[in-house]
Write a structure and sequence with these properties.
alpha/beta; 6-stranded parallel beta sheet; 6-stranded mixed beta sheet; 22 helices; 16 strands; elongated
């Protein structure tokens, strides 16, 4: 969804051709099943395991080599597609293609800058795959966290999560209500099962049946026909109060006239709600990213969370019964919404010609250490602390190295400046023996230049 919105903006830019590549669609059936259905089966059966996997990979650069190799083997079709297309720019809305594109750039198969667009409110380590040109994050705190662990600030943009811009636009509420025979005088609950049709919807509907508040509800059952039949059975006799739908393309209209959204805090659905100014009642967030999304929404006053399935109705009654609460929650949602996120991303992609930033292996180890210990890189041991090299000519970050690596160069012009030439790198035999990674990353940071002066920060 996020990729599609960005694609439409890019195609509207003169001189730009954009094409979407879906990694899973190009992979084999077994890999699709593993990434898709197996994941949701784990969410239902052993959610704690999903949460453990999320936390285990939360520090950047912790993905196990066998897993990384397994992904590479099963995504060769995507690699060939990117290579044959030979893009000028790569935009990634998932960490897997971001990793593949970074590998192609590091191996000089492509030369395109890589833009990474995260789609949850918190940043997870799997998204960090240097080299890259820019990472777009959902909120300022996430940007601050990434700066703290060593990612150059000039490579980070707080954009929000890309959604269709119409979520932030006015809607003909009267026409939408007429379409579904809804009463404007009654609060409208929008119960969403998601595209796949989550089974938690049944519990939510049962709870609303016991509510004391006067309301109407639209229940979206997604592609789950059995769920739709079950919900229709539950509301038999109260059809004037409930509208039960399958998959609906009318979600933007319904979300803009609804009073409360009842469902799960996925990154995209939450962002759509916030853009529409629609408060959320959160049910069973998936451990990991959805729990962190819910933390943010609760902190901002745009949502409530139901820790018990048996109190969903009570929670909604509580909101509807408190004068002004719904309005305050709606204002909070709209305040943190980013209906213009896709436009922000597309504009940067079309205009930002920054070369990639490179991060040495030693610097990555420092980033891991800072992340695991919950501290800023400036608080690490002196040798582990990071120095960012900025092109003096452009002011753009070029590479991230450790203080120890910087000291080993012995080529500083001043305390804040480093001068390097191609000959310097060629003649450093000891680097080729002890730190070939540093030699390679510095040469890459220099680009096509034979001599470069970097500012150190």
């Amino acid at each position: 969804m996020a990729g599609g919105v960005i694609e439409r903006y890019l195609k509207a830019t003169p001189g730009v051709y954009a094409e979407i590549v879906d990694v899973l669609e190009l992979s084999n059936d077994a890999y699709q099943y593993l990434y898709g259905k197996t994941y949701f089966k784990l969410v239902d059966a052993v959610p704690w395991l999903v949460g453990w996997g999320y936390e285990a990979n939360d520090p950047p650069f912790k993905l196990k080599k066998p897993v990384e190799m397994f992904d590479r083997i099963n995504t060769m079709s995507t690699v060939r597609r990117i290579r044959n297309f030979n893009p000028d720019v790569v935009v990634c809305t998932h960490f897997l293609p971001a990793r593949l594109a970074a590998l192609l750039l590091a191996r000089e198969v492509i030369t395109a800058p890589i833009f990474v667009v995260t789609t949850d409110y918190d940043f997870q380590g799997l998204w960090l795959n240097p080299p890259f040109s820019r990472i777009f994050v959902a909120r300022d705190e996430t940007k601050a966290y990434m700066e703290a662990i060593g990612v150059p600030a000039d490579r980070l943009t707080t954009s929000g999560i890309p959604v269709r811009p119409l979520f932030g636009e006015p809607v003909d509420a009267e026409a939408v209500r007429k379409r579904y025979d809804l009463d404007a005088a009654k609060p409208l609950l929008l119960v969403s099962a998601g595209a796949a049709g989550g089974s938690y919807t049944t519990a939510a509907v049962k709870q609303t049946l016991r509510m004391t508040s006067d309301f109407q509800a639209v229940v979206i059952c997604g592609a789950n026909a059995e769920l739709k039949t079950e919900v229709e059975r539950l509301v038999t006799g109260r059809e004037n109060q409930y509208r039960v739908l399958g998959y609906s393309s009318d979600m933007p209209d319904l979300m803009r006239i609804a009073s409360l959204f009842i469902g799960k805090p996925g990154g995209l659905s939450s962002s759509e709600c916030m853009a529409a100014g629609l408060p959320m009642v959160l049910i069973k967030p998936i451990p990991g990213q959805e729990e962190r999304n819910s933390d943010y929404l609760l902190e901002q006053g745009a949502a409530v969370k139901c820790n018990y399935e048996g109190t969903i109705g009570y929670k909604i009654d509580e909101i509807l019964g408190e004068p002004g609460r719904l309005e305050r929650m709606s204002a909070s949602a709209r305040r943190i919404g980013h209906p213009d996120a896709a436009a922000t991303v597309a504009a940067a992609v079309a205009s930002d010609d920054a070369p990639p930033v490179w991060i040495t292996r030693a610097a990555r180890e420092s980033i891991v250490a800072a992340s695991e210990q919950g501290m800023s890189v400036v608080d690490l041991d002196t040798d582990q602390r990071l120095k960012t090299l900025y092109h003096q000519s452009s002011g753009r970050s070029a590479a991230v190295i450790t203080k120890e690596q910087l000291d080993s160069l012995g080529r500083k012009v001043s305390a804040d400046t480093l001068s390097l030439s191609a000959d310097d790198l060629v003649n450093q035999r000891r680097w080729r023996r002890s730190e070939p990674d540093l030699l390679l990353e510095l040469r890459r940071a220099m680009g096509d230049a034979t001599e470069v002066t970097f500012d150190l920060r």
